[in-house]
Amino acid sequence: MLRLLALIAGAVLLVWPAFLNGYPLVFSDTGAFLHQTSGPLVIWDKPHVYGPLLHAFHWGVTLWAPLLAQGLMISWLLWLTQRALRGAATPGLHLLACLGAALLTTAPFTVALLMPDVFAPAVLLALLLLAFARESLSRAEALGLGVVAALGIAAHLSHLPLALAIIALALLMTRRLAPALRAAAPVAAAVAILVGTNLWGHGRAALSPHGATFMLARLQADGPAAAVIRDRCPEAGWYLCAFADRLPMDSDDFLWRPDSPVNRAPDGTPRFLGGALLSAEAGAIVAETLRARPLEVAQAMLANSLRQLVMAGVGDTLVPDHLAAAVRPRIAEAFPARELAAYDAALQPRGALPAAAAPFLWPHGPVLLAGAALALLAWWRAARRRDLRRLALVVGVLVGISANAVAAGALSRPNPRYEARILWLMPVVAALALAPRRR
């Protein structure tokens, strides 16, 4: 009973920004995920995974249920991590770890946000525990971790490079196949989920039917793809040849602005689902860019990854941007009137949440810096004692953080929210690794 109460209390601590706001935190993309089941609508640029997961808990009643589910998931993973690192988990230290993460790091602003971001730390912890601490887990716990990891990888494609990095780490550190296979099994399941849902929704058995459009957005913003378009046009006959003089441009503007080349034709005609329409040509341009300018692409990816690695903050998590158009209609159409009233009364849609949250944000930077020092200390101590499990979990968190920076910064665009969703694990796991073992 104490353990159960500790897990629930830890979950409540980890979602406290929702209580400050008066409602779960949402983002403009949250509306698209709600529309995946309230529409129902297959969104061209998002896997058909997180939306159904939200629906599995809210059932058109309230979004507080999936919020608490997210909190319980992270609380449970931290409990298992403490047990793996210390030999046993105690309710007191679990609550202390959750309280520290909640008050001193960016963790609660990820856990309280109804977005697939919450699965970045979940996937990392689940795969590390499966690969390096299987003997500390029951069969049911291992199965649960596999389900969390598979759904989390499928929910957002940026989690796939992170998972592959952990598989590689398991091979390097253990030099055995079994740990790597335990981490690889959820990846295989995630690939099956993605291929199956994309075949059903888009008629294409692919990981990302229109992912080339996003890669092109990044490469043209960095310059190499824009240069290739100028060099190959007009002979190439690409649709984007008509916009060569407008490139490069910001990747988000390229993808989403109504008057961008993606969304408006040269004659001014709007292009419905322009990103999907462009994906075949985008794949050809990306392939030509990688062939013609590989060094420039590599340099840009490295620079963006390094920028992402040191860029962490709640960023656009708190603001009301686009919520009135993207989220409120979805709540109005699929939930009771009292749920819409609760959303309208919250701080975030009224633009008051950034000021309310500001007093709680100042510890994040200093704690992350202290966490880096703690991680190095935990690494050194585990290596000196030849404690493979502690060493693997600490190093694994650092590898996962780096892989996340590459996936988010190099393949999408550097954004404070992308690294904040996972960087908080560094001080928390390092502190648990430095705690004394419990017989």
Would you write up a description of this structure?
α10 runs antiparallel to α22 (388-410). The radius of gyration is 22 Å and the shape is globular. It has three domains: 2-203 and 318-363, no CATH class; 211-292, no CATH class; 364-439, no CATH class. With 439 residues, it is mostly helical. It has 24 helices and no strands. 69% of the residues lie in helices and 0% in strands.
How would you concisely characterize the structure shown here?
This protein has 439 residues and is mainly α. Helix content is 69%, strand content 0%.
Topology:
Elements: H1 2-14, H2 16-21, H3 28-38, H4 50-58, H5 64-86, H6 91-104, H7 107-111, H8 119-132, H9 139-155, H10 159-174, H11 177-202, H12 211-222, H13 224-232, H14 251-256, H15 274-292, H16 294-309, H17 323-326, H18 328-334, H19 337-345, H20 353-357, H21 364-385, H22 388-410, H23 416-423, H24 425-434
Helix pairs in contact: 1-5, 1-6, 3-4, 3-18, 4-5, 5-6, 5-8, 8-9, 8-10, 8-11, 8-22, 9-11, 10-11, 10-22, 12-13, 12-15, 13-15, 16-22, 21-22, 21-24, 22-23, 22-24
